[in-house]
Amino acid sequence: MAIVELISPEVVKVPLAAGTKEDVLRELVLLLKDAGKITDTDGALDALRKREEMGSTGLESGIAVPHAKTDGVDRLTMAIGVSREGIDYDSLDGKPSRLFFLMLAPPNQTGPHLEALAEIAKLARSKEFCDVLMNASSSEEIVRLFRVD
Question: pTM score, two decimals?
Answer without folding.
Answer: 0.94
